[in-house]
Amino acid sequence: MVILDPDVYFPNRFTFEPTPDRGLLLMWQRPHCLLPAACVRAAYGAPARLAHHTDIGVAQTRAPLPWDWLEWFLRRLGGSDIPRVMHVESIVWAALAMRIGGGYLNPSKWICWHRSLLKRCLMLAGMAGPRLLRLERLQQAKCFHAGGVAKEWLVKAVERGWLKGTADQTEPTPILPFEELTPAQFEVREVAKRVFHRLTGAAL
Question: Residue 184 has what pLDDT?
Fold first, then answer.
């Protein structure tokens, strides 16, 4: 079973990685997309362990999934009162990853948009979003996930022919082991985010 977000793009001739007999494959991203914070804390209190750097662009797994456990976990997150926020999905994937195992799709081939400090500065300097996507390493990519604001630029960049690759990316690539995000690490990251936003302002 392969589950795709609508904002993923495949620039080259490629193949999916072999789906393991057991476990879950997810894309890797920096830093993570686990939010809102209250739901993450509810997940830890469930209790559940969460994988770090999980991205929801592509997921691969085999049936059957642990449906009883998933129902229990969703109730612990809030049941019918779970916030209607798309990133809650990432919390569920992160918990499932630590529950059933698996690993990350290799981030050198399965690339996620990351609004780095350099890209933030280029945006402030006036570089248009579609042009910004040309900085991605798409000649070596199997898949590019245009998450966040980048999804608004993807169609324009593709229409202009800027993202079309010509490489053959059909060889399997190594799977990386999941890394756990502990509650302490999560809280440190939350503090760092608040400090960053105060220093840089909403424009960044």
Answer: 97
Is the distance from CB of 70 to CB of 36 less than 8 angstroms? no
Nearest CA among 138, 102, 114, 93 for reference residue 17: 102
Greatest C-alpha distance within the chain: 51
Whether residue 45 is predicted with pLDDT greater than 70 in this model: the reply is yes
Between CA 57 and CA 154 the distance in angstroms is 14
Query: What is the pLDDT at residue 115?
Result: 86
Give the pLDDT score at 63: 86
What are the CA-CA distances from residue 144 to residues 86, 96, 185, 199 (Å)? 19, 23, 27, 30
**pLDDT in the model for residue 204:** 41
Beta-sheet strands, E only, within 130-179: 143-145, 168-169, 176-177
Spans of all domains in the chain: 2-11+18-107, 110-162
Which residue is associated with the tokens 């399965």? 110
Which H or E element spans position 178? none
Q: Which of 107, 106, 136, 138 is nearest to 119 (CA)?
A: 136
**pLDDT grade for 31, boundaries at 50, 70 and 90:** confident
| Strand pairing category for 143-145 and 110-112 | parallel
Question: β-strand 8-9 against 143-145: which pairing, if any?
Answer: antiparallel
Write the CB contacts of 163 (distance below 8 Å, at least 6 apart in sequence).
9, 11, 133, 134, 136, 138, 144, 154, 157
